[in-house]
Amino acid sequence: MKTCLVVDDSRVIRKVARRILEDLGFEVAEASDGLEAMAWCSAVMPDMILLDWRMPGMDGLEFLRRLRAEPGGETPKVVFCSAETDLDRISEALDTGADEYIMKPFDGGIVAGKLDYLGLAA
Amino acid sequence: MIEPTDRAFLADLCLQRAGLQVDPEKAYLIDSRIAPVARREGFASPRDFVDALRADPDGRMSWALVEALSQSETDFFRDRRVFVHLVDEVLPALAAAHGGQPVRVWSAACGAGQEIYSLAMMLADAPGTPTATELYASDLSERALEKAQAGLYSQFEIQRGLPARTLVRHFEKQGDSFVLSPRIRQMIRWRRVNLLDDLSRLGQFDLILCRHLLPQLAPGAQALVLAQLQRSLAPGGRLVLGLRDPTGDLVAVDPAFGVYAAPSEAARSAA
User: In A20, A89, B16, B142, which residue has its Cα 20 to 30 A from A119's Cα atom?
Assistant: First the structure.
């Protein structure tokens, strides 16, 4: 079973994302900020990370930079999931190493489409 | 709430106008689609809209009805591998057979333009010299065509099937929406076409895309549209259908990608 780490400071968003990803056949773990997510990834790299941008402590972009510098940190597909819809910021996320980008609000169809594009569909 | 006899009348009108199969038993669907159109067209109630249609079933309102009951959502790059196959295999083969003349491509039920724009963006992004193409798109719905030409999509629409890299490369933000670059929009020529009408004035095409329309049509209309599209194919041309669409007597070329040829054409090349 493929694994996905959902990183978001909102419990509601984590819950929504978990339901969508479990329906798509993923085993889901949750982290509420970048630091907690780094701890998860040091233990075991997930196949995919759904990553919020603005979080207290370590934000999504900083987490992504550190992840990509870790051994094995190139492996997980990282999909940003953020309320940021400015195209220059989206480019920044992609240039920093994100594989895809989802603008909030989102639904199951959008997530499924992105996973299909990344070759992660079950 | 629209009465059962009125629903049957509306369904029949859609069948006559566009070959559209509407189930008159689907009260909720019909009610929910008719109410906004009635409001937009200035009627006090859906009832008044139906009365106007009964008084003038050939008038402009009948098209507003058809548009309302045929609208369907679609994605960018729907069945992505089909687009890859068209750009990598089908279009270059058609171009080679043409000796350098541009390949004429027609998206025959283009809706809000996601299909033809997906193809246009792929061609624009193709490495090397892209296949020389002329891109045409048509739909029955004036409203869909207006939206397609504007190239303006909501945040929800833009995220369906469109990779983020493609989004930032070809779109600009405009308020809460996203607008496609003029460079891509200018690649397409648009026209309102009812596929039940005489299509000969459109000329012939090397590649016709008509995906996911046929299942919406009544069986008689499906056969008619398929026959019409076959007549619009240039010699050696290809017709691309949705992966689960009915295929009539077409000859499968790459059925895994929905690519077909006219039967007369297959007979000719076999001879």
Answer: A89
Size of chain B in residues = 271
Cβ contacts of A103 on chain B, cutoff 8 Å: 155, 159
Using CA atoms, how far residue A37 sits from A58, A61, B130, B163, in Å, is 9, 12, 43, 25
Q: Domains for chain A: give ranges and CATH numbers.
A: 3-117 (3.40.50.2300)
Between helix B27-40 and helix B60-70 the angle, nearest 10°, is 130
ipTM for the complex shown: 0.94
- Tell me the pLDDT tens digit for each residue of B28-46: 999 999 999 999 999 999 9
Distance (Å) from the C-alpha of residue A103 to the closest C-alpha of chain B? 8
**Cis before A105 (ω within 30):** yes
Q: Which of B156, B172, B179, B180 to mutate to test the interface with A (most CBs of A within 10 A)?
A: B156
Q: What confidence tens digit (pLDDT) does each residue in B1-16 have?
A: 789 999 999 999 999 9
Which whole-number Å values give the CA distances from B99 to B92, B94, B96, B208, in the listed order? 11, 9, 5, 20
Report the gap between the CA of A9 and the closest CA in chain B (Å): 23
> b/e map of B165-175 (b: 16 or more CB within 10 Å)?
ebbbebbebee
Exposed/middle/buried for residue B259 (C-beta within 10 Å: 0-12, 13-18, 19+): buried
Q: What is the pLDDT of residue A65?
A: 97
Query: Using CA atoms, how far apart are residues A33 and A6, in angstroms rounded to an integer?
Result: 10
Distance from CA of B84 to the nearest CA of A (A): 12
Q: What is the pLDDT of residues A4-32, one digit of tens each?
A: 999 999 999 999 999 999 999 999 999 99
Give all domains of chain B, ordered by start, each with its CATH number: 4-70 (1.10.155.10), 80-270 (3.40.50.150)
Give the residue numbers in B contacting A (CB under 8 Å), as ranges. Answer: 75, 80, 155-156, 159-161, 163-165, 167-168, 171-173
Sign of the alpha-carbon torsion through A51, A55, A57, A62: positive
A51 vs A94: CA distance, rounded Å: 12
